[in-house]
Amino acid sequence: MKILGIETSCDETSASIIEANRSDRKVKLISNVVASSLRLHSKTGGIVPEIAAREQVKYIIPVIKKTLKDLSIAIDAIAVTVGPGLIGSLIVGVETAKTLAYVWNKSIIPVNHLIGHIYANFVGENPKLNAKRYTLNANIGFPALALIVSGGHTDLVLLKDHGKITWLGGTRDDASGEALDKIGRLLGLPYPGGPAIEQTAKNGDSKSYRFPRPMIDSDDFDFSFSGLKTAVLRKVKTMKQLNNETIANLSASVQQAIIDVLVSKTLKAAQKYKVKSILLGGGVAANQKLRDELKLNARRYTLNANFFAPAKKLCTDNGAMIATAAFFNYKPIPWQKITTDPELYFDDVLQ
Ligand code: KG4
Ligand code: ZN
Q1: Residues with beta carbon < 5 A to ion ligand 2?
Q2: Domains of the chain with bracketed CATH
Q3: 85 CA to middle of ligand 1, Å?
Q4: Is the pLDDT confidence value at 130 over 50?
Q5: Are 93 and 8 in contact (CB under 8 A)?
């Protein structure tokens, strides 16, 4: 079957098509179109919800048309992100998806954005998208542990199977991506801070500044990243002037602090729940150092746990992960009953 996935929870407008069948459960990516209003937000150093929603309205139809190759691809079902996210952005995708489901008489499946990020790991090979980085969904064994690290979330969840998800812990304040974005701004780097810090850190020494590793030894699976931002701010205030070298060293040091906490907590949970797979998801999952360190340590410290990360293109928001989550948790509901839920979380897993 072919599923059209629509994702408009924040500043990306995406529509993708996956093809999958129930017999081998392999997911093939047919097309993946993403438009972003990111550059409009770089002027303000953060997302302006009103602008994001207006841009969603502008992009949604051209993006869907492009992914369907001007309607030459026939689809069987529609999957759409219903939350969490910005209300104005979500409404654009949800109302469009409902209209198409009605007009085309297709099934529609509501998807939780956070669960979508996990399912980016289950998208199979597409030679066009750097196939070597892809994992085959058939190899992902349960129980699996997922670390979701994005601009809005930092969560550890346990998947006993498809549709059986338990939340283990999450951030008490800023998400890891949010911390990187705020610290990027402090260092005068372009928005979003995550990729900018990764780039700048390549020329820096991660041991030059010793920033705190908040909650690294706490007895739970929670995180806290707002103190890190304050620590960087304090450090920057003591420095007369930031130059390329100090910015690179600060970037490398702060990136390492965040990675150390994420890796340590993830491994602790992987050992406790004796998982077979560790899955990474969300925009921050595009960070190569985080991927490398999790992979290395998963092999070193956990029993038989394989590490998976989505292709980098599928770490940030996209429709393919939404369509894939819908395939593995196929629960269509009447379009009249589908509504947006900006506060949706793991407690009310909607899949
Ligand atoms: O998943 P996503 O596209 O949107 C949300 O659902 O929030 O994640 C966006 C976040 C931003 O905070 C951005 O700075 C971060 O992901 N990010 C990265 C990288 N690419 C994006 N953080 C670290 N390294 C990267 N390469
Ligand atoms: Zn996201």
Answers
A1: 150, 317
A2: 2-140+313-337 (3.30.420.40), 144-275 (3.30.420.40)
A3: 14
A4: no
A5: yes
